[in-house]
Specification:
The complex is a heterotetramer. Chain C has helices spanning 5-21, 30-54, 85-108, 115-134, 138-156, 163-194, 199-205, 211-228, 237-240, 246-255, 260-267, 269-273, 276-299, 303-323, 329-356, 374-388, 394-409, 411-436, 453-475, 479-487, 498-520, 535-541, 546-581, 586-593, 599-622; strands spanning 62-72, 75-83. Chain C is mainly alpha-helical. In chain C, strands 1-2 form a two-stranded antiparallel ribbon. Chain C is globular and about 85 Å long. Chain D has one domain. In chain D, helix 6 packs antiparallel against helix 7 (181-213). Classes of the chains: A mainly alpha, B mainly alpha, C mainly alpha, D mainly alpha. The interface between A and D is medium-sized, with 22 and 18 residues.
């Protein structure tokens, strides 16, 4: 579609991809070569569920939702970045309009943050 | 490389995700399959954006990532909740509602 | 002063609303309010008809537009009530016979806790029936049509503690839906063809429409008429409808509602005039039903069901007559009126008998009641003479004319009508003999007694009408001339000398009476439990397979379709998913036996749906 | 680096977006209230905020009556259909909120779980028993905001965002029933998984349409479609997937299977709102996509929509016959109604548009009222939704039985009720062309449908009831909802001109 300049523009990404691929291969190979080789139940356990579905006392105790909360918090900020970044790139051209909109956006995200905070989502030892 | 190939890849990913939803019975894996479908759509959007030389598709991809994230939050909340009630994340166990 | 047609509908409607909404508070006086509303609307009807009579003969009409119901673009539907000579006779019949039956019900329903509600429903029925006949467009007629259906439905199931009553109500409803479907199709076809549903506009434009369309409209109207008037093949509900209280059978299932089909055909006669096919179908339906109903009447031991068979048969006569075209319309309406008198009288008579016999309906448990219930016997006997067509009673005048015009139409139609007259004479004589003559076969605890005056007075009035009503309508009111502006007039030619007809008819009737006398007459021994009877009687007891038809043609395909859909949902889709998944745990196995509720199978169906959509798109695009 | 593409400073017409912005703003504030206010305060503040914002939005909506404008850089459009749909949605939302407020029918005083995260049957749950749930309000407001956006969306991106904004809160709300928690959670899971699946399908469809046409906004797609009417496989596949995604939301067969489960499991107050409002919003968007973006290719999609409409009517009507739970009966009947509305869509004409809109308005109020009425019939275990439990209801409460009968008859399309007006409007648009066949299927299915509506009516009036089932006296809110439903059924039936004229006045979609 676009010819040579476009391709060259994507070259760094290609390089980055190669490097990361190489790193991944290296880690796996290195781990296999150097690590101890012991097989036990834990290694063969189902992986896909994430959390082992162990039985809990009848009537239900508390379930450790900390990981889940952490993930949610991560998402709150993750989303912020997704939109902050393009805004930062075109910040000068969007001028005041962009700034106001972005403040509104961040305020909205902060509301969510405040909600999590007030509801005890940030207290790890609970 | 022709953009059509990327679209084809997107279609393959979408179909894989679709198959995953139909075949896996773990709600979380089903949900991951849905995410795969969303990402297939993202790939298609970005490819098309490149094909047509406008940014709409890329913007859409940003938004769909956001939505996917929100969906994760909601989805995990529901799945974790039902898992705690039933000790099972199998979607098929959740079939009290019928005829 | 001319009363307003809308008031005619409003009075019973308001009364129904009061009765149904005030609850127990109106228990003490509710039935009298109901009667007052009926009598009041009768007076209004009388006023309207008298005013109508003062107008010039050719253009008699009183119209009142209450409001414009729908107005979209050039399409208007007004709520307009029109009194013309045709609807005039109907409003008199409905409110007149209706009033008598209301009064009778005060006595008949005296011991029922829900008498007030009963009167509410009756008033509702009267209002709906008046709407039906006063409507000047098909859509408003449809409203009335559904309204009488609803009221009939509520009244058939009135004694809800009897399971048979509830199931009869259901059956009436379901069978009637088929008819209503016909009417809705007719309304839609009319709307599309003429861009209007108002009778004057439709009839004025009828001859410009294609003959195929007209035939389809006619057939759809016939389907509707068959449902409401219990005509073949939708006749079976009427016999079960006898589960309702007897006044209901008299008012709705003999005198008024079931004749709505005849009214519909007569009202839409410009459509039928244009389609020989549709008219032929009407004649066929009428002829078949008149014989079928008569045969069913022979076999029933339940007095009300015997009378119901007779009603079917008599409406068959009317259908036959309206199918004959201009030569028959007037006689159909004439017979409708006389039938309204004598059949309502006989039903009320039957109710009076039941009232005195602890609600026994089996005629094999009657016998020798003529002395115990003299008034009932006398009035019933007059009705009997009227229905079998003994001159000068009412039925004679109307039935004789129908047989005449049937012969003018064809030998087959005439033959059927004549044969029907013979069978009618037979089964009515049977009813008469089994009930009032012979030996008493009463149950041990039966102490027959005459009914109170509030019940016998309506009987006497109806008997009087049955006796002289036919002659009076023909020679005093001059019904023929009265209806002519609406229904037109036709002259036919008998294939044989007209002087032969009367002796022939009377001979046939005498034959029927004699045959019944021989079997059930003096000294005949009537077993209390019914003998097995010949195949013919057994078939007739089974309503000549009416239910079988319903089951095979109407219900089973529906049930099968439902079952199939559920099965596809349950087994095919889920089964496929299950096969792929291969689950093992006991819990899910148990849940899977129930075979539904799986989100993944829903997803699969969605995918299939998407494929269907894609295929449909692709078919257009790439085909 | 690389390509510089134009990125103009956007213009946002805030005044025209007032209804949407007010509701979404209120939703954010509502989250803040959840975060900082004490429980007792929240209980009064949240409904106040909800009703206040709905009122302002409704007033704003009325103010937009004559506006015909594409706004927010072509993302949204304010035109006649938008205003009437948003107005309907807002009124439905007010009624839905009234049902959510209802505190008199359930002895526990609240239709929602005190805390959704507790495990059903646990001591933890009992500990929270007396509390009132207030988290439903922000979720509800977000859902309403999304619904307002959906029919106004003028490009696929906005449509997708709106779809998600109203869907995600509904998934959560579905799982928050106070009683029968397991069923409720299961319904939420199903709704979520299938809803996410359908969103993915919708998204991929959008991507393919974008790939085929190079445009996300409806006008651009329309141009591309009419410029190249034979544009191939990519567009067809995209349209099919997009349709599938939207038909899921409207609950048309075969994308309907979630609806009975979800309607049954969700808290009834929410089911009422959801069944009415989701359908209005989703059909609004569907109409816009079909008429604006794909209007030039109507010949292409009509057969597909005809198939779906016919299927929906038949499957909905036939399956409802064998149901034993009233909520499921109503759910299946809503599937049939989706088919009836699709008949109007099928006409692909201004008349079809106004017919569909009339149907949506008429249907919305009646359905909301019918579900609202379900909450008052109760057994010791909660709402009594089994058809058998409704037997003999007329003896216990003639008013409830009469009103419910009227609502059912309205759904059956009895003349002189709004149901008839609606069917008349939708069908008269489709009747005449080759779509006549679909209308006949519609007539057949409404005949079948009448059978199961009547079955319920008969059992209410003609059967002996269960003494354990009682009719609770509802608060003013529920009574208002039912009253509005009944009034709409009667008024729009007796004087359909009010509704037909209103809808005819709004004109067609702005391109």
């Amino acid at each position: 579609m676009r010819g040579a300049p476009a391709v060259s523009a994507y070259l760094p990404i290609l390089v980055l991809g190669l490097v990361s691929f190489g790193f991944a291969v290296f880690s796996v190979v290195a781990g296999a070569l150097t690590g101890p080789k012991r097989y036990n139940r834990a290694r063969l356990a189902a992986y896909e569920c994430g959390i082992e579905p162990t039985p809990q006392p009848a009537g239900g105790g508390r379930f450790p939702v900390k990981y889940y909360l952490t993930a949610m918090l991560f998402i709150v900020f993750d989303i912020e970045i997704v939109f902050l970044y393009p805004w930062a790139v075109t910040f000068d051209r969007l001028a005041l309009f962009g700034l106001i909109e972005m403040v509104l956006f961040i305020a909205t995200v902060l509301v969510a943050y405040a909600y999590v905070w007030r509801r005890g989502g940030l207290e790890w030892d609970n | 490389m022709s953009p059509a190939a990327y679209l084809a890849l997107a279609a393959v990913l979408f179909s894989l995700g679709c198959t995953g939803v139909l075949l896996r019975r773990n709600a979380i894996v089903m949900f991951m399959s849905v995410e795969l479908m969303l990402n297939a759509a993202n790939l298609a959007l970005v490819t098309a954006s490149r094909m047509h030389g406008n940014l709409d598709g890329q913007v859409f991809a940003f938004f769909s990532m956001t939505v996917a994230a929100a969906e994760v939050v909601v989805g995990l909340a529901i799945i974790v909740q039902i898992f705690r009630s039933r000790r099972s994340a199998s979607i098929d166990d959740a079939s009290l509602l019928k005829l | 002063m001319t009363a307003s047609p809308a008031l005619l509908v409003a009075v019973p409607l308001l009364s129904a609303a009061v009765l149904l909404l005030t609850g127990r508070r109106s228990d003490r006086w509710g039935h009298w309010l109901g009667c007052a509303a009926a009598v009041g609307s009768f007076l209004i009807a009388l006023n309207l008809v008298l005013s109508l009579a003062k107008q010039p003969h050719e253009s008699r009409e009183i119209s009142q537009t209450v409001w414009t119901w729908i107005s979209v673009g050039g399409f208007n539907v007004d709520v307009t009530f029109t009194v013309d000579p045709l609807s005039a006779v109907f409003i008199l019949l409905i409110t007149g016979v209706g009033s008598l039956i209301h009064i009778y019900s005060v006595g008949y329903m005296e011991h029922d806790d829900n008498r007030r509600r009963f009167f509410g429903y009756l008033n509702l029925f009267v209002a709906a029936m008046l709407t039906l006949v006063l409507a000047n467009n098909l859509l408003l007629l449809y409203v009335g049509w559904e309204g009488v259906g609803l009221a009939s439905y509520l009244l058939i199931g009135f004694w809800q503690h009897k399971p048979s009553a509830a199931s009869a109500a259901n059956k009436a409803f379901i069978v009637n839906r088929v008819g209503d479907f016909g009417l809705s199709i007719a309304v839609m076809l009319t709307f599309v063809t003429f861009g209007s549903v108002a009778f004057p506009e439709v009839f004025a434009a009828a001859d410009k429409a294609s003959s195929t369309t007209i035939t389809w409209i006619g057939l759809a109207l016939l389907l509707a008429a068959c449902g409401k008037s219990a005509q073949f093949p939708l006749q079976s509900w009427l016999l079960d409808a006898m589960e309702g209280p007897t006044p209901v059978s008299a008012l709705i299932h003999a005198a008024t509602m079931v004749t709505a089909g005849v009214y519909l055909v007569a009202r839409c006669h410009p459509i039928f005039d244009l389609s020989a096919t549709a008219r032929g179908a009407v004649v066929a339906v009428g002829a078949i039903t008149l014989l079928m109903g008569a045969v069913i009447g022979i076999a029933k031991d339940d007095i009300k069901k015997a009378l119901a068979g007779s009603t079917m048969s008599q409406i068959g006569y009317m259908m036959l007559a309206v199918g004959l075209g201009p030569i028959g319309y007037i006689w159909a309406i004439f017979h409708l009126l006389t039938h309204g008198f004598f059949k309502a009288g006989m039903f009320l008579g039957a109710g009076s008998v039941m009232h005195g016999m602890n609600d026994e309906v089996n005629m094999r448990r009657y016998g020798a009641l003529r002395t115990a219930m003299a008034v009932t016997f006398g009035t019933f006997a007059i009705g009997y003479l009227a229905i079998i067509g003994v001159p000068p009673f009412a039925g004679f005048w109307s039935k004789d004319e129908i047989i005449k015009v049937a012969f003018e139409h064809s030998w087959v139609a005439g033959g059927a009508a004549l044969l029907g007259a013979a069978i009618t004479a037979y089964y009515m004589t049977r009813v008469m003999l089994m009930t009032f003559f012979g030996k008493a076969r009463w149950a041990d605890d039966a102490h027959p007694h005459e009914s109170p005056a509030v019940m016998t007075i309506p009987l006497v009035v109806l008997a009087a009408l049955s006796a002289v009503g036919g002659w009076a309508l023909l020679h005093v009111v001059n019904l023929e001339t009265w209806l002519e502006p609406v229904l037109g007039h036709g002259e036919g030619e008998l294939p044989f000398s007209s002087s032969l007809l009367l002796p022939l008819t009377l001979a046939v009737v005498a034959l029927g009476v004699a045959a019944a006398w021989k079997v059930y007459g003096a000294g005949a021994d009537i077993p209390v439990s019914a003998p097995r009877g010949s195949w013919f009687i057994r078939a007739a007891r089974a309503d000549l397979g009416g239910d079988l038809f319903n089951e095979k043609v109407l219900m089973q395909p529906g049930q099968r379709l439902t079952a199939t859909l559920v099965r596809v949902d349950d087994s095919v889709v889920d089964g496929a998913v299950r096969g792929i998944g291969g689950f093992t745990t006991a819990l899910s196995a148990r849940l899977r036996q129930a075979q539904n509720g799986f989100a993944r199978s829903y997803a699969l169906v969605m995918v299939i749906g998407a494929v269907i959509v894609a295929l449909a798109l692709a078919m257009v695009r790439f085909a | 680096m690389g390509v510089q593409l134009p990125f103009p400073t956007p213009q946002i017409e805030y005044s025209l977006l007032l209804p949407v912005l007010v509701i979404l703003g209120a939703a954010v504030v509502s989250v803040l209230i959840e975060a900082v206010a004490a429980e007792s305060l929240r209980r009064t503040l949240q409904p106040l905020l909800a009703f206040g914002s709905l009122a302002i939005a409704l007033a704003g909506c009325v103010g937009l009556w004559d506006q015909r404008q594409v706004v927010a850089q072509g993302a949204l459009v304010v035109d006649g259909p938008t205003v009437i749909l948003q107005g309907t949605l807002l009124i439905l939302a007010v009624l839905g909120a009234l049902l959510m407020m209802e505190s008199r029918v359930d002895p526990a005083g609240d239709p929602f779980a005190a805390r959704a995260s507790t495990i059903p049957g646990s001591a933890d749950e009992r500990g929270f028993g007396a509390r009132r749930q207030t988290e439903v309000w922000p979720l509800f407001l977000f859902a309403v905001g999304g619904m307002l956006m959906f029919p106004a969306a003028n490009d696929l991106l906005t449509a997708f965002i709106a779809l998600e904004v109203f869907s995600l809160p509904l998934y959560l709300l579905t799982g928050m029933a106070r009683r029968r928690r397991l069923l409720s959670q299961e319904a939420a899971l199903k709704y979520f998984v299938l809803g996410a699946f359908s969103s993915a399908v919708f998204l991929f469809g959008s991507a393919l349409i974008y790939a085929a046409t190079g445009s996300l906004d409806f006008a651009g797609i329309a141009d591309a479609v009419s410029a190249d009417p034979t544009s191939g496989l990519l567009l067809s596949a995209g349209v099919a997937l997009l349709l599938a995604g939207m038909l899921f939301k409207v609950g048309a067969a075969p994308f309907h299977q979630w609806s009975p489960d979800v309607y049954q499991g969700a808290p009834t107050a929410l089911t009422a709102f959801m069944s009415a409002a989701t359908k209005v919003a989703a059909f609004g968007a569907l109409l816009r996509v079909m008429f604006v973006a794909l209007g030039g290719a109507a010949w292409d999609w009509q057969p597909a929509v005809a198939v779906i409409a016919g299927l929906s009517m038949l499957v909905g009507a036939i399956t409802a016959v064998v149901q034993s739970d009233i909520k499921r009966v109503l759910a299946y009947s809503s599937v049939a109604h989706a088919g009836f509305i699709l008949t109007g869509v099928l006409a692909a004409s201004p008349k079809g548009l106004s017919g569909s809109l009339v149907y949506l308005v008429a249907y919305g109020f009646v359905t909301l009222a019918a579900f609202g009425l379900l909450t008052v019939v109760r057994s010791p275990a909660g709402e009594a939704t089994d058809v058998q439990q409704w037997a003999g209801l007329a003896k216990k409460s003639p008013v409830t039985a009469s009103v419910f009968s009227l609502l059912l008859l309205t759904m059956a399309g009895l003349p002189l009720t709004s149901g008839f007006t609606a069917k008349f409007a939708a069908w008269s648009a489709a009747w005449g062309g080759w779509q006549t066949g679909v209308v006949v299927i519609g007539a057949v299915s409404s005949t079948i449908a009448a059978a199961f509506y009547l079955r319920i009516i008969v059992s209410m009036w003609f059967s002996e009831g269960d003494d354990a089932v009682v009719v609770a006296l509802p608060g003013l809110g529920t009574r208002t909802v039912v009253g509005v439903g009944v009034a709409s059924a009667v008024v729009f039936g007796v004087a359909p001109q009010l509704l037909l004229g209103l809808v005819d006045g709004v004109g067609v979609f702005l391109r």
